[in-house]
């Protein structure tokens, strides 16, 4: 970055302007397509260069982004009023046609868009005039606003896409920052978009993301002021960062969780007794204490957090640690001395450490574990192609509502496909819940969904983790939403206090 970009000017009573934020990122996103995702790190970059119709604010509430007005006209019609005068980074003006094109691209199976499963009830999307977009539905769908706020539900230029742009490596949206370059393994650079539609934003001149896959390297870069901010603060360093008066740690204990998934079509994991035996062989409290130094909570019941799932406490203790019962179930299934091939990733300690920490419990139940660790993208490929019958992963619900269960256990869910899992009863219940606007009824239905998942054990949950970012006190305006979803939209409004 040129030295002139580093200069910070007092904001005259408001936030300062200028400066470059250096961000130590936990991985090096290789795919920047606005409608795909390869993890939260790639979503960070995407949300700087693109906008959705709506977004999550710092408190996790849904607010407008490219939309000035939005909401249900009736139970089968959702209407959006667009901002006028929005420019793409190439200088062209965003139109309602671009919005319609973007959603049709996401709904096209060939795109494999991350938001597609939550757009499955959209019958049509049309633009009756230059500033209005109307979504018509096959049936009521209360989860649709969450789909609109997802970090991968972005609006793109139809002309740019149809010109043959390589969306994996090229970036061109309406966002507050323009993509400059990505040097693989070194950095990804963004600079201010001067014609951004929100007056005065962004405050920063630029943001440089530097991939630092190693936890210790990332924390060291922060503590030595090589970077201003990092993501995925490792549990081993939460204490030392929290106690540093120059640093701020922002996190939640709501979203991130670990799980062990089974390819349910592969023997012997097609037998629910085997899956349940493995689930009961995991000493979750020990995993939490060993892997994350207690920064989180054991998960022996619901997948969804009680922060947004009031029924969750009713399921506590549903999957206890019981190695003797596990041995009994394995014997009953004819699988005494079971050999368990498990794959996990070496790229994220919040995934790798729990996978390692669960081994003693499994071995106590007489299970022989072969654990393989792979780099992130290789691991994801191994899981999706089902190279291993069992995998240990860590992720989060896409949004803070039990409708996000569909991503994991519905027959069309991304994670369920990795498991070869489908259950008609779960599908029916999830569909009923998405149709209902009665919150009490929805909670009853989702309770039944989670009970059914605990009976069938397509995956077993391990621990809910504390996850967050850390930055120096001179970085201002950044918020980690306590609900809603993991989002980096706060970087659009971040500024620097130090002046030169």
Automatic annotation (TrEMBL):
InterPro entries: Peptide/Ni-bd, SBP_5, SBP_5_dom. The keyword Signal applies. Residues 61-412 form the Solute-binding protein family domain. Pfam families: SBP_bac_5. It comes from the Bacteria. Keywords: Signal. This is ABC transporter substrate-binding protein.
């Amino acid at each position: 970055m040129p030295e002139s970009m580093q200069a910070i000017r007092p904001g005259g009573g408001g936030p300062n302007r200028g400066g470059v934020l250096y961000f130590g990122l936990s991985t090096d996103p290789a795919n920047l397509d606005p409608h795909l995702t390869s993890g939260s790190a790639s979503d960070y970059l995407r949300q700087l260069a693109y906008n959705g119709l709506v977004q999550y604010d710092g408190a996790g509430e849904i607010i407008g982004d490219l939309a000035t007005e939005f909401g249900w006209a009736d139970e089968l019609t959702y209407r959006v009023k667009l901002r006028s005068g929005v420019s793409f980074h190439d200088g062209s003006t965003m139109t309602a046609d671009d919005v319609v094109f973007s959603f049709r691209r996401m709904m096209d199976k060939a795109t494999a868009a991350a938001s597609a499963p939550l757009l499955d009830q959209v019958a049509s999307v049309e633009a009756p005039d230059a500033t209005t977009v109307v979504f018509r539905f096959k049936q009521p769908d209360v989860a649709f606003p969450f789909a609109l706020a997802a970090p991968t539900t972005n609006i793109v230029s139809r002309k740019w896409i149809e010109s043959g742009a390589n969306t994996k490596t090229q970036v061109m949206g309406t966002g507050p920052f323009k993509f400059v370059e990505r040097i693989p393994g070194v950095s990804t650079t963004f600079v201010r978009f001067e014609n951004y539609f929100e007056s005065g934003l962004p405050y920063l001149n630029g943001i440089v993301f530097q991939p630092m896959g190693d936890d210790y390297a990332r924390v060291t870069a922060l503590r030595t002021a090589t970077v201003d901010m990092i993501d995925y603060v490792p549990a081993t360093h939460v204490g030392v960062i929290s106690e540093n008066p120059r640093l701020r740690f922002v996190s939640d204990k709501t979203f991130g969780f670990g799980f062990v998934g089974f390819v349910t079509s592969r023997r012997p994991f097609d037998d629910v007794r085997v899956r349940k035996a493995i689930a009961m062989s995991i000493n979750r409290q020990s995993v939490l204490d060993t892997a994350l130094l207690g920064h989180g909570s054991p998960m022996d019941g619901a997948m969804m957090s009680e922060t947004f799932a009031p029924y969750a406490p009713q399921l506590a203790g549903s999957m206890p640690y019981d190695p003797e019962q596990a041995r009994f179930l394995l014997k009953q299934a004819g699988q005494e001395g079971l050999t368990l091939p498990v794959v996990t990733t070496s790229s994220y300690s919040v995934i790798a450490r729990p996978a390692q920490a669960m081994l003693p419990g499994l071995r106590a139940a007489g299970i022989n574990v072969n654990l393989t660790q792979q780099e992130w993208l290789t691991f994801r490929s191994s899981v999706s192609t089902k190279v291993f019958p069992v995998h240990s992963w860590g992720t989060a619900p896409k949004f803070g509502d039990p409708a996000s269960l569909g991503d994991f256990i519905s027959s069309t869910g991304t994670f369920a496909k990795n498991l070869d899992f489908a259950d008609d009863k779960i599908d029916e219940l999830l569909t009923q819940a998405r149709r209902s606007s009665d919150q009490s009824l929805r909670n009853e239905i989702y309770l039944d969904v989670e009970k059914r998942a605990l009976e069938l054990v397509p995956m077993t949950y391990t621990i809910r983790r504390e996850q967050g970012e850390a930055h120096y006190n001179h970085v201002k305006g950044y918020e980690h939403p306590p609900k809603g979803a993991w989002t980096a939209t706060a970087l659009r409004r971040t500024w620097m206090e130090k002046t030169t």
